[in-house]
Amino acid sequence: MHLSKAVFYVSSIAAYVAAEATKAQTAMLYVSSYDGNISTINVAPSQGHLQLNVTSINNGCAPDPSWLLLHKGILFCGDEGFPTPNSSILASFNTTPSGKLQQLSNVTTLNGNVNSAIFGNGTMIALAEYGACVISVIDIQNPSALKVTQSIKFNLTTLGPNRQQSVSRPHQVVFDPTQMFMLSPDLGGDMVRVFHADPTTHHLDEQSPLKVPAGSGPRHAVFYTSKTCGFKRTYLYLVTELSNMLYGYEVMYNGNMTLSFNKVYESGTFGFLPIPNTAFPSEILISPNNQHLLVSSRNDTHFGNSTNPDPKNSTAIVSDSLLTYYIDACTGVLDLIQVYPAGGSYPRSMELNREGNLLAVALQLSSRVVVFKRDCESGIIEEIAGSVAVDGVLTNVVWDEPAMGNSTYDRRGLLA
């Protein structure tokens, strides 16, 4: 399916809103910002669109909230700690029906918390500490008493060619579908670090990495599992921040103790289209129906005359891009089907709701959260459903949906 076919996927926002209006419960979004705050946004149908309103603000993850993770009603927030170069915090909050956050605890970590992931049957968080060249493990069994149990320091023997690559820069932690392995794209080291996670002790043991070309700067990765081609296949997709590349690998399990990778796909982040010179990707995720891959691209200014997401302002704006790919479940090969305006500048973070029909995007430099309506079957983003201004430089956005119950929605398309 090619980009030229995308225009045929059109449907009405009115039909969507009518269906949403029958639901008794309202969703919320949590948004972090470098101004020190976590904002709660109420999301509700209103007159053919979605009405987004900031209902509360909490500064318990200051000074630089960077990454949010919602697990069984507890919101965890990593502070990047720019003004505190020798320390950062991981904070925990109880969520409430009103959207107000109640702080439970925080624990001091090293520095530069930019990403986290749950593992160990919900008892542990792995934390990527970009500034300290470290991955830490936090015991979260008691969210009111967080405890660091392991910190792994990285050193590089070979430096990359870019200024950001003078030291190791772990930018993400992501677990495979078995939860037995953790991967960490190292932007400084031009590799994806691989760890075995002990199922009993939850200790992380580093193994041989997946290496990428010098100067790539791997940022984020996502696992994809296919069961529709005769036998189960697992793929890994990776975006590189510095070289603007998108890679796909089939993942091989070697006796459940080590991983190996066979490359099945390679393109620029814009697929068959030219890559804007100033672009660099940010987020990557899989749709809940397991058919599409989405990438957000910052600073590409691909759209010079885009619809303003502010309903009170009709002035057209310059916008960066959201890219959607169709995934061939049998081969792992990707096919670009849409490039869509992100609604503003620097779409640093994005997350699909559980159904996959709404995509929330945190625009870092536009200080705005935009929610897009999306057709789940085709994967096509159709239009802006609603937006709201949020103070500061935005860093992350996550959904809180009542229908989720006690599950954890992982932005990489998995339910844990």
UniProtKB/TrEMBL annotation:
SUPFAM superfamilies: 3-carboxy-cis,cis-mucoante lactonizing enzyme. GO terms for molecular function: 6-phosphogluconolactonase activity. InterPro entries: Cycloisomerase_2, Lactonase_7-beta_prop, WD40/YVTN_repeat-like_dom_sf. Transmembrane segments: none annotated. It holds the Pfam family Lactonase. Belongs to the cycloisomerase 2 family. This is Putative 6-phosphogluconolactonase.
